[in-house]
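Troubleshooting: if your tokenizer reports a length mismatch, compare your output against this known-good record of 152 residues.
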Amino acid sequence: MLEDCRDAQERWGGVHRLLDRWLQERQHLIEAYQALCQRPQQGAGELEGFCSRLLDYVSAGHFEIYGQLLDEARAFGDQRALELAEQLYPRLQASTDAALDFNDRCDNGDLRDNLGLGSVLQPLGRQLEERFELEDCLIEVLHTAHSAQQRA
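Known-good structure output:
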């Protein structure tokens, strides 16, 4: 029994550290977004830096975090959590698509002269806000709910 607890801690403790790092990256993304909103006339470097941070964040979500959370839910046999994830993923994908579209517009030079940047930042911000809420829900249901089981 103690061996099972140690194995769970080693396995899912890594998920916890991964989540902590990812949530810290989220905070940096929010700060970069707010800076861009306050001064949309910033140079191309700031816009490119924001885009890079945005893509890194959404990519980590899709290719690392979500998979780890699903693996954890499967390991605990949590069908309710898996069903919730299935319902939320299309909405998360919509915000990923918005982030990719924003980045493409930056890459194409559509936003380099800062014309119209404010008009595309607002919808992106709404998409990100919804994404963060959905991600928090996933973390709560797919990870935090299992924390007590991990310690037991």
